[in-house]
Amino acid sequence: MPYRTSGLHHVTAIGGDPQRNADFYLRTLGLRLVKTTVNFDDPGTYHLYYGDESGRPGTLLTFFPWPDAPRGRLGTGQATTTAFSVPEHSLGWWKRHLEQAGVSTGEVLQRDDEDVLPFRDPDGLQLALVAHAQGDPRDPWDTPVVPGEHAVRGLHSVTLSVSREDATAGMLTEGLGLTFAAEDHNRFRFVAGDGGPGATVDVLVTPDAPRGLVAAGTVHHVAWRAPDESTQAAWREELVERGVGVTSIMDRRYFRSIYFREPGGTLLEIATEQPGFTVDEPLLELGRALKLPPWLEPDRAQIAATLPKLDLPRENNPVSA
């Protein structure tokens, strides 16, 4: 396997009301909105990117929020849990913080020597906070609502739910260059590189579960990192030679992308690490203005008129916070 991802790039989910979505991820989870743009394939809806200060790959959870979207159904053929990495011994603080914000949480679980706190966002998206015993060196986005000592460091892992694991495992190892790391009953862990936060995927085998329905409150796709465009192009050719149905390379403005489905049904993406989110606005102003790619700029007035008004909390801007 000549091409190996170094870890997760982002996870994209479908939400409902965009204001409720922004309030939850900015105020309750303490992330930063690093880009306010639109779904390039459907410009009538926002595409909101949440992450650390600069939106580094591996910290990003993004949303297509459709106000009238029907509720999805969790099941096989999709990513069913998105987990964030937080400091060790911080889950007590997070449990109190979430419950004070009206968010119901599950009991803290222990999995692979990590403490896991499950909960859901307002649209029912299944999330978790994972306190990694070996720590996470990534710098957090520090806000008055969620102080840095407890703040999210970035993505920890995703869980793919499948009816059987063999073909999915083959795609993860042979198509993405991951390695098998652990097995716990019906859960199989695969890692990129040395593993750890931001480089982990769990495959959960639930043969009797219904097929998932991707709509509000579910993950749309999971993106993995490619270092540059030339690697991505060669990687794409290798996938094509392997018989994988993969898209052409798409310009997503802040990265380049290819998409394909793993055999279990989950839509995967390989995204480049560059050019990043400061390509069209300065670091200190990320996320505050509606940004459109050049090919949509002629339709700016029409697009802006169709989007709901979005009020961002002061914490999203370090100058005015």
Write out key terms for the chains shown:
single chain; 321 residues; alpha+beta; 2,3-Dihydroxybiphenyl 1,2-Dioxygenase, domain 1; 8-stranded mixed sheet; 16 strands
Kindly summarize this structure in a few lines.
The chain has 321 residues and is an alpha+beta fold. The protein has helices spanning 18-28, 91-100, 166-175, 229-241, 300-306; strands at residues 8-15, 32-39, 42-51, 60-65, 78-86, 109-111, 114-120, 126-131, 154-162, 179-184, 187-191, 200-205, 218-226, 250-251, 256-261, 267-272.
Explain this structure.
There is one protein chain. The chain contains 5 helices and 16 strands. With 321 residues, the protein is α+β, with helices and mostly antiparallel strands. It has one domain: 2,3-Dihydroxybiphenyl 1,2-Dioxygenase, domain 1, CATH 3.10.180.10. Strands 2-3-4-1-13-16-15-14 form an 8-stranded mixed sheet. Strand 15 and strand 16 form a beta hairpin. The N and C termini lie far apart (47 Å).
Percent in strands: 25-35%
How many separate domains?
1
Q: How much helical structure, as a percent, in the residues? A: 10-25%
The CATH class assignment is Alpha Beta
- The sequence of SSEs as H and E is EHEEEEHEEEEHEEEEHEEEH
- Helical element count? 5
Evaluate the radius of gyration.
Answer: 19 Å
Structural class: alpha+beta
Q: Using the alpha-carbon principal axes, give the shape.
A: globular
Query: Major beta sheet, specifics?
Result: 8 strands, mixed
CATH fold-type name: 2,3-Dihydroxybiphenyl 1,2-Dioxygenase, domain 1
- Taking all residues together, what is the mean pLDDT? 94
Contiguous runs where pLDDT drops below 50 for at least 5 residues: none
Q: How are the strands of the largest sheet arranged?
A: 2-3-4-1-13-16-15-14
Q: CATH H level: which superfamily?
A: 2,3-Dihydroxybiphenyl 1,2-Dioxygenase, domain 1
Terminus-to-terminus distance = 47 Å
Work out the number of β strands.
16
